[in-house]
Amino acid sequence: MRRKFKNEHILGGIILTGLFIILIIAIGILWIFPKFMKQRIYKKMTDALSHKEYAELDQILDSFWCTFSYKPYNREFMRLTSYTMQGDRKKIEEQYESMFQKLRMSKKQKVPLAKRAFYFYLETSQFGKAQEMLSICKEDPNQNEYHVMQMMYDILAEKKSNHIQEIKKNLDQLKTQKDAFTKEANRVRIGVYEFLIGLQYHYLHNTKTSHSYLESALKHCHHTPYEPMIQEMLRQ
């Protein structure tokens, strides 16, 4: 009897040990597999974007594994990026409206989205919506960026001309940087500053100075949403 009890005790210990090992393996799989799938899905999405395979990207974003791996905000932000790359204004507008109306967002998520929407609405002359986005961006901890956005709204929407000296100072500082004209982002910023200065001189009826800044801005804002706006101004 003792031997039988001992054998049963050993067998029970082996079974418990086996179950414990299986449990550890299962936990490991449940922890590692989602991470693996998330990385795999991310690579698929970025590959589709880089190859401009937008229909395929939509299928990935709506797939089970993407829904399982990524939160709605991240998926819809990627969809917004796709529409932006396609230059589809209607889809971009619908996506902004959908995201602000349907998604629950933290301040950390809402402010960056509002910034992006602000520039889109400003560039498409939807000033009422741009103002709504600007009011959201008041909560941005980066108040320097918010100040620049406020100046852009003043100039483009309200046609104010009281920011010439400040923007000239920003422009001069930017031009002193080593990569001012070689780095695309800085080159475009230079063009935007020149555009904003040119606009303000236009409001002041100083056509000669206005055209001088706008012609320079046109070179630096080539292939950007500002290019047609600058061209329109130069035709006036």
Structure description:
- It is a single chain.
- The protein is mostly helical and 236 residues long.
- The chain has a domain at 161-236.
- The protein has 12 helices and no strands.
- α7 packs antiparallel against α8 (143-156), α10 (184-203) packs antiparallel against α11 (207-220) and α11 packs antiparallel against α12.
- The model is unreliable at 2-8 and 25-33 (pLDDT under 50).
- The chain-level mean pLDDT equals 86
The main sheet comes to: none
> What string, H for helix and E for strand, traces the elements in order?
HHHHHHHHHHHH
Structural class of the secondary structure composition? mainly alpha
End-to-end distance, in Å?
Answer: 107 Å
Q: Which segments are poorly predicted (pLDDT under 50) over 5 or more consecutive residues?
A: 2-8, 25-33
* Overall shape: elongated
* Count of β-strands: 0
Helix segment tally? 12
Strand content is under 5%
| Rg, Cα atoms, Å | 28 Å
Helix content: over 70%
List keywords for this structure.
80% helix, 12 helices, elongated, 236 residues, disordered N terminus, mainly alpha
In short:
The protein contains 12 helices and no strands. It is mainly α.
